[in-house]
Structure prediction request, 531 residues.
Amino acid sequence: YDNVEYGLEPNLKTSPGGLRDLQTAIWVMARKFGTTDPAELERLGMLTTQERQWLEDGRRFLWWVRFGLHLLAERKEDHLQFQYQRALAQRLGFADTSARLGVERFMHHYYRHVMALREVNDILLQHFDETILRARERPRIVPVNERFRVRNNYIETTAADVFAREPSALMEIFVIMANRRDISGVRAETIRAIRDNLHLIDRRFRHDPVNTRLFIDLLKAPYTLVSQLTRMRRYGVLGRYLPEFGEVVGQMQHDLFHIYTVDAHTMSVIRNMRRLHYRSAEQDYPVAAHCVRNLPKIELLYIAGLYHDIGKGRGGDHSELGATDVEQFCRRHELSEADTELVTWLVRRHLLMSSTAQRKDIYDPDVIHEFATEVKSEMRLNYLYALTVADITATNPTLWNSWRATLLRTLYGETRKALRRGLESPLDRQTSIRACQESALEKLRDRGIDEAELAGLWEIPGDEFFLRHTPRQVADIVERMHGHDIAAGPLVMAVDLKGQTPNEGATEIVLYTRDEPSLFAASVAAIDQLK
Prediction:
C-alpha cells in the first residue's frame, strides 16, 4: 500500500495503521509480557494513558467499520472501496453538512484513527527495539548541544524537561535532523515527550521570531526536508504550528483524480519538488529541472506547495482561501513584500498553467499573450511550472503522461518567448497565420505545386491549422490533400510530434474527408478500437 496510511481506498486490515499494525504490537506484547490487555500494558509502563486510549478507540472504530463493511458486501471484505464508502457512512450516521459530505466526515474519522494507531505501533516497536533487541548494546552517545544528543544514531533530549523549559526545542529538533545525515530517527521517549508538550505550541509560540526563523531554516535545510515535515505531521507538531494545515489532516478529496488525502498529497508535492534537484529529473522532467535550478529562493516554492490545497474542505474556492492563509503565514515569518506577493499569487493561481494548457488553444498568440500578462515575469513562470509539475505528479501517478508534458512544455516555451519579446509587443494572430502560409506556399512551389492549383483547398483547414503547425507540416499535409481524390474515400495521415525527451511527444491524426453526421464520434471510436 505504498506505505501510505491515507490512500483513498484503504484496506482495513493491511494498510498502514490498520488492524495488522495493531496486532503486530499486541503479539510482541503477548510474547514478552504474557498479556494483550491494554490496561495491563499501561500499568507495566509499555503504554502511556493516551496511547492506551488511542489503541482502544482505534480498535473499536476499525471493528465497527469492518463489521459494517461485511454487512454491506454480504461477505468477508476488508477493502474500503468507493462503492461502499457512501453507503457505509450513511449506516454509521455520518450526515452531509454544508461544508462536507457525510462520506468525507466518515473517512476523516477513519484517517485520524489509523494515524493514531500507526503512531502507537511505531513507538511500541521502536521501544521494544531499544529495550529488548538492543538492551545489551554499548550506547554510542554524541552530544549535539545542551538540549539534544544522538544515541546510536537516534536523537533524544538530554533531560526529560527540555521541551517544558525551552518550547522552541519542539521546532529545533527537526531543524537539527534536516541538517545532518547521521540521524536515523527520534527515540521513543523523545517522541512521547514531544506529544506531551504539544500544548506549548500556541499563538505565542507561533508568533515567536525564534520559532518562525527555525521553520524557515527547516525549509532551507539541505537534507530530509520531507522526512522531517512528515514526522512533524505524524507527531502533531505541524498541525499545531500551522493550524490551517491541522484542518486538512485526513481530509478526503472525493474526485476522479486524487488518490490521497490533502495532507498526504501535500507531502508528496514537496517530495516531488525536492526530486527535481536530482540528476534523474533532467531526463524525466527537463523543463522543471531547469526551472528549479533557476529559482532564487527554493523555500518559496515549498511554502506554495504547503499551502496550495490547504483551503479544501471548508467550502468556497480553496485557491482563494489558501492565498489568504499563506499571506498571513508570510507576514508572520517576516518575508519581504515581493516574496509574499509571489507566494500568494502562486497559491491563488496554482491551477492556471494546467488549465490553460489543457483547456485553451496554446497555439493561439492571443492565449499566450493573455497567459504571459498574468504571469508577468520569467521568474514567476519558473516557479509556476515547477509547482504545476509537482502537483500533477503527486495527484495520481497516471496523470503525468507525454501528452500533458508536451502541452506544458509548449506553453512554457511560448510564454517565455512572449515575455522576452515584451508584453507591450504581442505577436499578432493574423500576422502569425500569414507568415505560416507564405512560408508553406514557398515550399509547395519548390515541389512543383502552383498556388492556383490549390484553389479552394487552402481555405478548408481554417486558421487554427496554421497556428498549430509549422510551415513544413502545413506543406506536407496540403500536398497530400492536393494529390488525393476525396471522392474515392477519406485521407488519414499520422503526424509525429516529437518532444524534447523520449518521454514527451504525441501522434497527431489528420483526417481529410467529406463531412457527414457523427463523423467525430466515429473517428474517436475507431482510434479507441485501434488502442
Observations:
- DSSP finds 28 helices and six strands in the chain.
- The two ends are 30 Å apart (CA to CA).
- The mean pLDDT is 87.
- The CA atoms of residues 343 and 459 lie 47 Å apart.
